[in-house]
C-alpha cells in the first residue's frame, strides 16, 4: 500500500515536468538533439527512483529554524484504504500483463532474427566495421548479420551486441555511415536506456505522459546519433547520408513479412522522416556552454528536488506553537503545543529497524487509533483489509527526537 501511494504521488509530482520538457524542447529548435538526449537520460534515470530524493544541507551556525507542523490527522480511514487496495491490485495486474506483452514481443522479435540471420564474414565488410570501431575507441569486436525481412540496420542486445543489416547491397561509403551510426548507439549504451524506459513504462503503465516520453526518447536516440555522425561532414557527405535514409524508406515499402515486422516499420517510418528534415535544417544553432549549464541546473534542480535540513543546537521556533524536549519518562520525543495550547506527545517506541538500525517508531504509525472499527461489520472489513495485504508494510524509523527519519521499520 505504501509503495502504491508513493508511486501515485511521484507521478503527480514529475508528470508536469516531463510534459514541459517535451513541449519546450520540441518548440525551441536551437537546442541540439544531443543536449535534449542528455536531459532525457537524466529524467529516465530519475524515474527509476520512486521516492523523492532529498539533499540534506548541514548548517551548524544557525540556531533557529522553522519546523512545520506534522499533520497527525493525516491517516487513511479503513474504508478508503480498501478502495486504495483495489486500485493497488489493479496496478499490479497491469504490471504483470504489460510485462508479459513486452516479453512476448521481444521473444518473437529475437526468434525471428535467429531464424533468418546470416553472419557476414567478408573481410572487406568486417574491416570497415573495425575501422569505425577504432575511430570511436571501441575495443570489442562485434558480429554482423544480414537478416531477411528487416529494412533498417540496427544494433541488438545488451551484453553480446550484434549489428544486423537488411539483405541488400551497400557500397563502402554507405557501410561506413551505417556502422558508425550503430557503433555510436553501442558506445552510448542506448539499448540499456531503452530497456530502462520500458521498465519505467511498465511500472507507471497508467500514466500516458510516460509513453510520450518513451516515444520522444527513441526519436532523440536516432536524431542525436545522426547529429554526431554528420558533425564534421561536408554538405555533399550529409546528402549521401540522407540518401541512405531515403533509400531505406523506399526499401521497406517493398517488403511484406510478419505482423511484428510490419508494426516495427510503422513506428520507425515517422522517425526516419524527422531525421531527414533535421539534417537539411542548416539554421539549427548550437547552444553555448553557459546556457547548457544553466538549463541543466534548472532541470536537475526541478527533478531531484533539493531540500535543506538544518541542524540546530539551541532554540527551535515552531510555526504554530513551541517545541520542548522530553528528557524523562519511558516515552521519548517532543511535546508539541498546538494552537489551542494542548500538549501532544508522539510516544515513540524504541525498536530495531531494517539493517539492524536502532531507532524509534510512533504508536500512531503502528495502528490507526483514530479510525478503529465501531461496528462488527466494520471490524470484519478492517480485519480483511489488514490480512489481505501481499506486501510487508513499513513505517518510518525516527531518531530520539522523533523528527528526523533515519530508516524504515518492517511490520510483520
Automatic annotation (TrEMBL):
UniProt gene name: blaR1_2
CDD domains reported in the protein's UniProt record: M56_BlaR1_MecR1_like (cd07341)
Protein name in the entry: Regulatory protein BlaR1
Record-annotated Peptidase M56 domain positions: 70-277
Chain segments annotated as transmembrane: 6-23, 35-53, 86-103, 192-213, 287-306
Lineage, broadest ranks: Bacteria, Bacillati, Bacillota, Clostridia, Peptostreptococcales
Domain of life from the UniProt record: Bacteria
Swiss-Prot/TrEMBL keywords: Membrane, Transmembrane, Transmembrane helix
Pfam families reported for this sequence: Peptidase_M56
Amino acid at each position: 500500500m505504501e509503495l502504491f501511494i508513493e508511486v501515485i504521488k511521484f507521478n503527480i509530482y514529475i508528470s508536469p515536468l516531463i510534459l514541459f520538457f517535451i513541449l519546450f524542447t520540441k518548440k525551441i529548435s536551437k537546442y541540439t538533439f544531443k543536449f535534449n538526449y542528455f536531459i532525457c537520460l537524466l529524467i529516465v534515470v530519475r524515474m527509476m527512483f520512486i521516492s523523492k530524493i532529498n539533499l540534506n544541507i548541514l548548517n551548524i551556525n544557525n540556531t533557529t529554524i522553522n519546523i512545520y507542523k506534522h499533520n497527525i490527522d493525516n491517516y487513511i480511514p479503513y474504508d478508503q484504504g480498501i478502495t486504495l487496495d483495489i486500485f493497488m491490485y489493479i496496478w499490479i495486474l497491469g504490471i504483470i500483463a504489460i510485462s508479459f506483452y513486452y516479453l512476448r514481443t521481444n521473444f518473437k522479435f529475437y526468434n525471428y532474427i535467429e531464424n533468418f540471420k546470416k553472419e557476414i564474414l567478408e573481410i572487406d565488410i568486417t574491416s570497415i566495421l573495425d575501422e569505425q570501431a577504432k575511430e570511436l575507441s571501441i575495443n570489442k569486436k562485434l558480429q554482423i548479420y544480414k537478416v531477411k525481412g528487416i529494412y533498417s540496420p540496427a544494433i541488438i542486445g545488451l551484453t553480446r551486441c550484434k549489428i544486423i543489416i537488411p539483405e541488400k547491397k551497400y557500397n563502402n561509403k554507405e557501410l561506413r555511415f551505417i556502422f558508425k551510426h550503430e557503433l555510436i548507439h553501442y558506445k552510448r549504451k542506448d539499448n540499456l536506456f531503452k530497456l530502462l524506459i520500458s521498465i519505467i513504462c511498465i511500472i507507471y503503465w497508467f500514466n500516458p505522459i510516460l509513453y510520450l516520453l518513451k516515444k520522444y526518447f527513441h526519436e532523440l536516440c536516432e536524431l542525436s546519433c545522426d547529429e554526431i555522425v554528420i558533425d564534421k561532414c561536408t554538405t555533399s557527405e550529409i546528402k549521401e547520408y540522407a540518401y541512405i535514409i531515403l533509400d531505406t524508406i523506399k526499401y521497406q515499402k517493398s517488403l511484406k513479412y510478419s505482423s511484428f515486422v510490419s508494426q516495427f516499420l510503422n513506428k520507425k517510418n515517422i522517425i526516419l522522416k524527422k531525421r531527414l528534415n533535421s539534417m537539411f535544417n542548416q539554421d539549427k544553432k548550437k547552444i553555448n556552454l553557459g546556457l547548457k549549464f544553466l538549463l541543466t541546473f534548472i532541470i536537475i534542480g526541478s527533478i531531484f528536488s533539493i531540500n535543506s535540513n538544518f541542524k540546530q543546537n539551541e532554540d527551535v521556533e515552531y510555526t504554530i506553537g513551541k517545541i520542548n524536549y522530553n528528557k524523562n519518562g519511558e516515552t521519548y520525543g517532543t511535546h508539541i503545543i498546538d494552537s489551542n495550547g494542548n500538549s501532544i506527545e508522539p510516544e515513540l517506541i524504541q525498536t530495531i529497524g531494517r539493517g539492524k538500525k536502532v531507532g524509534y517508531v510512533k504508536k500512531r504509525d503502528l495502528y490507526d487509533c483514530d479510525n478503529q472499527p465501531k461496528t462488527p461489520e466494520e471490524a470484519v472489513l478492517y480485519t480483511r483489509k489488514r490480512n489481505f495485504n501481499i506486501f510487508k508494510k513499513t513505517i518510518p524509523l525516527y531518531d530520539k527526537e522523533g523528527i528526523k527519519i533515519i530508516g524504515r521499520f518492517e511490520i510483520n
